[in-house]
Amino acid sequence: MNGHVNTPAWHQQTYCLTPEEISNPVEVLTTFCWEYSPSEIRTKLKDWYAASLSDEEADSKSIFVVYENIEKLIEAVYLINAQNSLLVNKL
After folding, report:
1. Which of 86, 83, 84 is nearest to 23 (CA)?
2. CA atoms within 13 A on the CB side of 70
3. What is the pLDDT of residues 29-45, one digit of tens each?
4. Is residue 55 left, alpha or beta, with left meaning phi > 0 and alpha meaning psi from -120 to 50?
5. SS3 content of the chain, % helix, strand, coil (to 5)
6. How many Å apart are CA 43 and CA 39, to the nearest integer?
7. What domain of life is recorded for the organism (predicted)?
């Protein structure tokens, strides 16, 4: 066992990325980096984390947008990794 939670097969696939983003996952990274500066994303994530630990009302729209982008970012990273692995194996 590899330590992964038992999830449905579809959960192991990309499902947030559009077909265009699947074809060009680097564009997802580019868009993410354009949308958020490193300090801004760190602040948003810290605020998100703090809000999740408190009873105060959070800016749910902002948190949701960041969540969506992080989810896409994660999927794009895995696609890029898989593509790079294929290239390395061909060498």
Report:
1. 83
2. 11
3. 888 888 888 888 888 87
4. alpha
5. 75, 0, 25
6. 6
7. Bacteria
Cα within 13 Å of Cα(82), Cβ side: 12
Residue written as token pair 């896409």? 72
Which tokens belong to 13?
């696939």
- At residue 27 the predicted structure's pLDDT band, cuts being 50, 70 and 90, is confident
Q: State pLDDT tens for residues 54-63.
A: 756 667 677 7
Positive or negative CA dihedral for 7, 10, 14, 15?
Answer: negative
- pLDDT of 7 higher than 50: yes
Q: Token pair for residue 31?
A: 């868009």
What DSSP character marks residue 75? H
